[in-house]
Amino acid sequence: MAQANQAAAEETAPADVVGREEQIAPAPRISVQAFCETVETAAAIQAAGEDRRMAKAHLRIQMGGLAAAVEAYQSSPTPNVIVLESECRGDDILSGLDQLSQVCDAGTRVLVIGRTNDIALYRELVRRGVSDYLIAPVGTLQVVRSVCSLFSAPDAKPVGRIIAVVGAKGGVGASTVAHNIAFSIAHDISLDSVVTDLDLAFGTAGLDFNQDPPQGIAEAVFSPDRVDNAFVDRLLSKCTDHLSLLAAPATLDRVYDFGADAFEAIFDSLRATVPCVVLDVPHQWAGWTKQTLISADDLLIVAAPDLANLRNAKNIYDFLKTSRPNDHRPLYCLNQVGVPKRPEIKAADFAKALEEDPVAIIPFEPQVFGAAANNGQMIAEISASHRTAEMFRELAQLLTGRSEPKKPRGVLSPLIEKLLG
């Protein structure tokens, strides 16, 4: 029994946190009602409802188990998903489900949480139309995974991964890092990708990729009723065989004030059509930037080695850890390290404050970065063998779940060890 075995394995896991290589598609706008028998299960389901992947779902929880569910739907329609906890044995569970089936609307999915690890019971539940069976005690992520998987067809195209890159402070080079990572994902991993410039007033992605498209993200965000896969696809500008750009207008002819969910439809459309989306998030704190960071699959904070960046990076890092309790931790890197005659905060101090080492320390190299910016090229296009180009390749591997964080070695080892010291 695959589901039951998986559940049993997860019960012994040290933490109910999604792995970097795992990707769970968000649930659509659905109604979910849970009928629990224990407060522990109710708490796990409540926590699942607060997970970012369940943000669109409307969840209600009540106690009473199967009996309460049968009574509740005698005179009211059933939701999209019913989650039932039962401490009964097999025959009693089946008897209760038979009663529920008489009042259950067609199309409603049923998840059962039970105590019996029995393959015969599991097969009988599936035969009777139960969508999934989990063994108590359940973890938050188990519930999230089970509910979300109900709406991801086995033969469906995998949902796209969204990577958000944000600066701890303005002017730290977060956009340059985001664009180079997106280029590496497309060029070195050969993964179809879209770099999305969310700084509508001052975005530089068009300049960095030497593109001047007539349309971009502004047309989508200001016309939400028109947003669908075909419409968004028409707004993309081709940069390379595997990389496209959703450009910002970078004009000041209008004010760019948005609601918290303004970009939601655009991101959903990109997820459905592109394997990887890199968001260049501007350094500002508004409802939509907050929501964008919380809902991304992977996060990279870019900081320069000074005190303000240390404070801001810690604030962003701590906020995202708290807001995304079932996800792996955000990543951060240090950029523009080693400016001559500039006092700098050591990487070891960042590591101590954030309780995590930076995944990259990018040295200050104005000639190569300046040449790339002025030519509308990426670092790897200027020099594919450059040490910084190799760093961007490693970050691309890491952010797409193809490698684990590690301390970089090779030509940068002496410099990094000195900086960490």
Q: Can you characterise this structure?
A:
With 421 residues, the chain is α/β, with parallel strands linked by helices. β11, α13 and β12 (331-337) form a beta-alpha-beta unit. The chain is built from 18 helices and 13 strands. The protein folds into two domains: 17-149, Rossmann fold; 161-420, Rossmann fold. α3 packs parallel to α4 (90-101) and α7 (174-187) crosses α17. The chain is elongated and about 75 Å long. Helix content is 40%, strand content 16%.
Strand order of the largest sheet: 8-9-7-10-6-11-12-13
Strand content: 15-25%
CATH superfamily of the largest domain: P-loop containing nucleotide triphosphate hydrolases
Q: Please work out how many helical segments DSSP would assign.
A: 18
| Low confidence ranges | 1-15, 408-414
Radius of gyration: 24 Å
Number of domains: 2
Distance between the termini: 51 Å
Number of strands: 13
CATH architecture of the largest domain: 3-Layer(aba) Sandwich
Q: Tell me the name of the CATH class of the largest domain.
A: Alpha Beta
